Fold this protein.
Amino acid sequence: MEFVSKSVFETAKIANDFAMKLKPKEEIATIVGLSGELGSGKTTFMKYLAESFGIGETIKSPTFVIEKIYELAKKPFRHLIHIDAYRIEKEIEMINLGWKEIIDDPKNLICVEWPEKIAGIIPEHIMIKFEHVSETERKISIA
């Protein structure tokens, strides 16, 4: 599916609609890759996805801490795990942060900004690509 968001409000609606369709898998975490250039809308989308699951705190990209875990009040997932892999240089860094344990829990929803940085260890996942169309418009492709 492809969308062109002309505002933050449209991005919020796309994120909310996406969140409502997500269901846990039986064997492994549900993983969403968020790919696109800097400033293309990945973190904005994450903010509204998190709001859809009842997270009230401000969502910022965890660039320096790599990973932020939120307990979810609204089910069907137990945790939303937001990962920013931008600074990851070797996949072993993610493994050392407990990657295998978090992907093994089907109650986790894991969103990874810059999934291409961990392409060798990320299982099958939903990919959302963000592209600049203009200063205020973003193309959001979900596959």
